[in-house]
Amino acid sequence: MPIQSLLLDAAEAHFARRGVLETRLSDIRQDVGASVGAVYHHFPNKAELYAQVWLRALTDYQDQFWTALSECADARTGIEGAVVHHLAWVSTHRDRAAILSAPCPPAVDQRVHDKNAAFFRQVTHWWRVHEHYGTVRRLGIDVLYALWLGPAQEYSRHWLAGSMTTEPAAVAPELARAAWMSLRTQE
């Protein structure tokens, strides 16, 4: 495995468990067995290393979310499936989820802006198709996002912090159903 990938993996584990401020580059370097020069060859500073770890986590989450959503032909399956997928991803990728939900994300730069813009464009298009057919409510992306994934994200944050002990998969069906009930058009 390339040294850059090893450094990203080690940094991900440290940032997730100790936070950005408590993580030292020397700890990451020692875990990988890399020289100081090798670290600085790939990452000019800790902030850039953290930004790349964070962007990698975001990319993984968004790519998997979109894959799961795009395979759903109907709105209910997509809405509920996205909630279930979110909670499964958090359980499976605990370090990445901890990084994305940490209180201090990296400064938003063009990479994050472009990634988010493309992701929300895809999801919004998927939503608008179902909205057009009258299956789901007409909502702005802000409210839509909060109703759809807000409860699952809040549960995830508490679970990652250890204040909720029930596995996310166990609460997924109820949160998925609640998302559908709040987003569907009333019949």
What does this entry look like structurally?
With 187 residues, the chain is mainly α. 75% of the residues lie in helices and 0% in strands. The chain has 9 helices and no strands. α4 packs across α6 and α8 packs antiparallel against α9. It is elongated and about 65 Å long. The model has no long low-confidence stretch (mean pLDDT 94).
Which structural class best describes the helix and strand composition?
A: mainly alpha
List unreliable stretches of 5+ residues. Answer: none
Average pLDDT reading: 94
* Radius of gyration over all CA atoms, rounded: 18 Å
* Span between termini: 54 Å
Regarding quaternary structure, what we see is single chain
Quick tags:
9 helices, 187 residues, elongated, mainly alpha, single chain
What's the quick description here?
75% of the residues lie in helices and 0% in strands. By secondary structure, the chain is mainly alpha-helical.
Write the topology of this structure.
Layout: H1 3-18, H2 25-32, H3 36-42, H4 46-70, H5 75-92, H6 94-100, H7 110-132, H8 141-161, H9 168-183
Helix pairs in contact: 1-2, 1-4, 1-6, 4-5, 4-6, 4-7, 5-6, 5-8, 5-9, 8-9
